[in-house]
């Protein structure tokens, strides 16, 4: 008989607040092992006694059968002794505070099946209780302000548990054992319905009244998990139009929410990968192809062949939808580009002119989170999932790099901002924060840096930021005067984010197509062919540069870019072209030509994103935009069929760098437009020619560098036609092609790229 030994293990990862200790307890009891388990600031520590075989089996079972919400990053053996301690049972010890805090906070999670069953069971004491949750589900990251994850460190601290809840909370065999947000009708948070004056609507069932109001066409601000949604009935055209008018948002699609996949199938096509994402515990918004029926108002997602759809994820959502609506519009409760509103007072103040009613509650949201957005792109025989916006339910899960780096803080890009903190090889990217030019978003940016530093106990040794000198986050970086600052070039960061994700450690070719990013020469880059690693890069090629007449104004009014490009080609003959320059008068166009002649307020750029805008305007698809990317999105949707023209272009070497001259493509497009060729065919020709350019450039770079690995990154690659064609053609040319999946391909992924580049530079003792 083998002798009894005593072992102590430390388990790290998301192991707190996810039912890990009761799981270990049950497992130990089943195996008749003695000892104890406790939560501390590093994770979960287990001391256990048994034979070697028993203990090995026990650890294996921990790995294999761990609770659904947990993630194990590592299990380390702290000691092994032959002497047995002689425990008489297995127990759960009180949480201990250790000096370092490495326990990970779980993301917020959708309500689980067990809780849903109780929610709709009229014999259950939590029947229809909007805050039902358990150890396997409910709010986490959004309500915590310190660790360890215990009720006093969450916004649930204000609610005193009733006797019944306390019994469940303390019963190791209960499925609510140590569920920190545990609550019920007697002791937990409550919902209230208010009118837009903030006056309470007295009724025993505010949810039922809300449903009535929604059916009558009202717009209701509903407090959710990470913030407020503006909710309306998508079948009610008048309600949808009213919401658009009040939100001053005429075109950008509204997201919609359904209870189950069955309802979704009534109005959208759902592929297997998309279904998996929709029903995943993260419950992101998934972009789905619309069905050609008219279930909803055209104004839900006008001029768009996709719906952004998510499934219900809080009990309150289920209560609103269940047997009432196929779907509800659930768009972020905010004013234009401001941060999503998460506090009751702010909601009442800022949304009172948009919402008719407010369904609020008194469980405070500590940190705000937008809904995450995902899309699936079909690439021939495989499909790629890309996270367009990473926020609720994904954060704060870390990404693991191939090696440990010094701890740092990266501040991301200014638009679509995220920040990233790393502890050695674990990189914690924040939720989508937004456009820092907004005061509320900038406040949120600072709050999130402080919160993550505290929750993760990371003291950064350096700061990484964008090279753009006037970004708010760049300024913030230089204000933190104790730490060295590493400015990182924007497109290098995009490239590194893609290399990071695929565990790369050798030089690669980066094809980075983007809006604009500050270049090494001070011009705005955005159509770049780079070769580099995590330390450095060289610019091997770029798109012909052009002027943005009026700077940011040219981004809002793409016809200005079309005008400038055609003016370069046709000069004064531009007025005879078959192109409509929005509603601009001849005088206005004369001003533009003068701007171009004199270079007033006309920064130059190589941006492919802006080139898409120009082509969209040139083809008469979209001349003035309401939301970012609109011109390119509408051009992509129009571009279809199998019929296309091969457009002309030139690639020339200029000062040892390849320059793609796309002006001949535009001349061709004008010629075909004169022939009245269909716009969809011309749009497709533009996409396909771009992919030819990518392949030709990569071939040129490969013959100079022998590098075979290509990273496709930058927001322009959200364009599925472009991504698919570049991917397949590069593959056919025997390149290994990679693109971002779980790190956003747009500027939401910049912070992690900055982090990893600055970390390598810091390690090498390099500056800048
Ligand atoms: Zn549950
Ligand atoms: Zn209770
Ligand atoms: Fe970018």
Short description:
This protein has 768 residues and is α/β, with parallel strands linked by helices. It has 22 helices and 30 strands. A ten-stranded mixed sheet has the order 6-13-7-8-12-9-11-10-14-15, with helices on both faces.
Structure description:
The strands form 5 sheets. The protein has a 10-stranded mixed β-sheet with strand order 6-13-7-8-12-9-11-10-14-15, sandwiched between helices. The protein has a 7-stranded mixed β-sheet with strand order 27-28-24-23-22-29-30, with helices on both faces. Strands 16-19-18-17-20-21 form a 6-stranded mixed β-sheet, sandwiched between helices. The termini are far apart. It has 768 residues and is α/β, with parallel strands linked by helices. Helix 5 crosses helix 9 (315-321), helix 18 (630-638) crosses helix 20 (679-705) and helix 19 (663-674) runs antiparallel to helix 20. It has 22 helices and 30 strands. One zinc ion (ZN) is lined by residues 161-162, 164-165, 183-184, 186-188.
List low-pLDDT spans.
none
Bound molecules: zinc ion, fe (iii) ion
Task: Please identify the structural class as seen in this structure.
Answer: alpha/beta
Strand count = 30
Radius of gyration (Å): 28 Å
Strand order of the largest sheet: 6-13-7-8-12-9-11-10-14-15
- Mean pLDDT level: 95
Q: What form results from the Cα inertia axes?
A: globular
Q: What's the assembly state of these chains?
A: single chain
Proportion of residues in β-strands: 15-25%
Helical proportion? 25-40%
C-alpha termini separation: 64 Å
Give the number of helices.
22
**Main β-sheet, in a few words?**
10 strands, mixed
């Amino acid at each position: 008989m083998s002798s009894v030994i005593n072992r102590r293990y430390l388990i790290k990862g998301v192991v707190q607040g996810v039912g890990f200790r009761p799981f270990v307890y049950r497992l130990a009891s089943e195996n008749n092992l003695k000892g104890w388990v406790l939560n501390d600031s590093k994770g979960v520590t287990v001391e256990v006694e048994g034979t070697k075989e028993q203990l090995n089996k026990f650890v294996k079972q921990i790995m294999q059968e761990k609770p659904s919400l947990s993630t194990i990053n590592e299990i380390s053996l702290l000691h092994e002794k032959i002497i047995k301690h002689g425990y008489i049972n297995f127990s759960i010890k009180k949480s201990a505070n250790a000096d370092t805090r490495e326990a990970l906070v779980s993301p917020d999670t959708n309500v689980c099946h067990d809780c849903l069953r109780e929610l709709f069971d009229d014999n259950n004491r939590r029947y229809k209780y909007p805050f039902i949750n358990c150890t396997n589900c409910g709010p986490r990251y959004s309500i915590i302000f310190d660790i360890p994850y215990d009720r006093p460190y969450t916004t649930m601290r204000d609610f005193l548990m009733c006797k019944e809840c306390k019994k469940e909370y303390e019963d190791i065999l209960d499925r609510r054992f140590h569920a920190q947000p545990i609550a019920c009708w007697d002791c937990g948070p409550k919902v209230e319905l208010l009118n837009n004056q903030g006056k309470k609507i007295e009724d025993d069932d505010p949810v039922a009244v809300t449903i009535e109001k929604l059916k009558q066409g009202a717009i209701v601000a509903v407090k959710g998990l990470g913030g407020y949604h503006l909710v309306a009935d998508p079948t009610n055209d008048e309600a949808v139009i009213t919401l658009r008018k009040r939100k001053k948002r005429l075109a950008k699609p509204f997201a919609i929410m359904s209870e189950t996949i069955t309802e979704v199938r009534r109005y959208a096509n759902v592929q297997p990968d998309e279904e998996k994402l929709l029903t995943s515990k993260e419950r992101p918004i998934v972009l789905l192809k619309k069905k050609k029926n008219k279930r909803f108002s055209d104004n839900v997602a006008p001029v768009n062949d996709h719906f952004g759809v998510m499934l219900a994820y809080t009990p309150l959502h289920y209560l609103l939808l269940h047997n009432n609506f196929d779907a509800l519009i659930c768009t972020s409760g905010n004013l234009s580009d401001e941060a999503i509103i998460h506090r009751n007072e702010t909601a009442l103040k800022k949304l009172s002119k948009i919402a008719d009613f407010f369904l609020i509650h008194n469980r405070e949201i500590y940190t705000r989170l937008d809904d995450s957005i995902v899309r699936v792109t079909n690439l021939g025989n495989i499909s790629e999932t890309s996270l367009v916006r990473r926020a609720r339910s994904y954060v704060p899960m870390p990404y693991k790099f191939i090696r440990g780096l010094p701890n740092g803080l990266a501040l991301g890009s200014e638009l679509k901002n995220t920040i990233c903190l790393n502890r050695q090889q674990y990189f914690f990217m924040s939720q989508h924060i937004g456009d820092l030019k907004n005061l509320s978003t900038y406040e949120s940016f600072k709050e999130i840096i402080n919160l993550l530093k505290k929750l993760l106990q990371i003291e950064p040794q350096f700061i990484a930021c964008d090279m753009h000198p006037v970004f708010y986050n760049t300024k913030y970086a230089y204000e933190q005067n104790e730490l060295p600052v590493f400015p990182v070039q924007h497109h290098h960061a995009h490239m590194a984010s893609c290399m990071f994700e695929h565990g790369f450690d050798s030089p690669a070719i980066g094809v980075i197509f983007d809006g604009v990013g500050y270049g090494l020469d001070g011009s705005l880059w955005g159509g770049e062919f780079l070769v580099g690693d995590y330390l450095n890069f060289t610019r091997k090629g770029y798109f012909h540069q052009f002027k943005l007449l009026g700077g940011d104004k040219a981004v809002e009014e793409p016809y200005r870019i079309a005008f400038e490009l055609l003016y370069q080609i046709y000069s004064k003959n531009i007025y005879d072209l078959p192109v409509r320059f929005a509603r601009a008068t001849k005088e206005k166009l004369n001003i533009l030509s003068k701007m171009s002649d004199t270079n007033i307020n006309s920064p130059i750029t190589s941006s492919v994103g802006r080139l898409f805008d120009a082509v969209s305007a040139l083809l008469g698809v979209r001349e003035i935009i309401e939301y970012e990317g609109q011109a390119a999105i509408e051009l992509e949707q129009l571009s279809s069929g199998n019929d296309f023209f091969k457009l002309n272009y030139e690639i020339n070497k200029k000062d040892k760098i390849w320059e793609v001259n796309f002006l001949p493509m535009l001349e061709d497009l004008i010629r075909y437009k004169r022939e009245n060729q269909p716009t969809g065919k011309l749009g497709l020709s533009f996409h396909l020619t771009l992919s030819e350019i990518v392949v030709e450039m990569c071939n040129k770079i490969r013959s100079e560098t022998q590098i075979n690995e290509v990273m496709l990154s930058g927001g322009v690659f959200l364009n599925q036609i472009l991504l698919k064609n570049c991917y397949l053609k590069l593959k056919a040319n025997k390149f290994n092609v990679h693109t971002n999946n779980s790190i956003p391909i747009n500027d939401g992924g910049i912070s992690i790229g900055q982090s990893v580049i600055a970390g390598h530079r810091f390690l090498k003792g390099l500056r800048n």
